[in-house]
Specification:
Layout (H helix, E strand, L loop, with lengths): L2 H31 L26 E2 L5 E2 L11 E6 L6 E3 L5 E4 L6 E2 L10 E6 L2 E6 L7 E2 L2 E2 L4 E3 L4 E4 L2 E6 L1
Parallel strand pairs: 5-6
Antiparallel strand pairs: 1-2, 3-4, 3-13, 5-7, 7-8, 8-11, 9-10, 9-12, 12-13
Length: 172
């Protein structure tokens, strides 16, 4: 082998070694700092003079820093979805006309930070006068009153849905 090919082979191994080191640092950084949380609020608006009609109450936070309270919608609510158990216990979402997406992804309506919950775990949507729940291909499954959800199933008042360590209940 020529001197040039041995030098190129050494540089190739050196580049491969650095790629391995940098990918390991990326994995460690993600484990240490967690996932990036994106804001889902509307863009920053200019403050207007004291106009009581335009003020919105700030969400309350628990001692652990988890957002609690209700998530408002512009439509009139005919009921609400309540978190009965899990890290977001006490959180309620008013039911309007829009579907509710539940999962770990920051784009979901209800974001659940649970290792047993998929990024887009399930969808709760209105149909006719009632509500239906559909599993979106989650790994660990969605359970409606201890029955695994596959295809969209009716979701009635008082029914409980379990996904990971979180339990949701449909209330009026």
């Amino acid at each position: 082998m020529s001197e040039l090919s041995i030098t190129l082979l050494r540089f190739g191994f050196l580049i491969l070694l650095w790629a391995l080191v940098l990918s390991a640092i990326g994995v460690l950084r993600a484990d240490l700092y967690g996932t990036r949380v994106t804001s889902r609020g509307r863009g920053r608006e200019k403050r207007k003079p004291d106009n009581r009609a335009n003020k919105v109450a700030a969400p309350s936070r628990s001692a652990t820093g988890i957002r609690t309270g209700s998530i408002s919608t512009s439509a009139d609510a005919v009921g609400h979805l309540a978190v009965v158990s899990g890290p977001l216990k006490g959180t309620t979402i008013p039911l309007g006309t829009a579907p509710i997406l539940v999962g770990r992804s920051p784009t979901c309506t209800l974001v659940i930070d649970d290792d047993y919950c998929s990024a887009k775990h399930c969808r709760i949507f209105p149909e006719g006068q009632g509500w239906r729940i559909e599993d979106l291909g989650s790994t660990n499954g969605t359970f409606l009153d201890n029955q695994r959800v596959g295809d969209p199933m009716p979701f009635k008042r008082g029914d409980q849905v379990r996904l990971g360590a979180t339990t949701l209940e449909l209330r009026s």
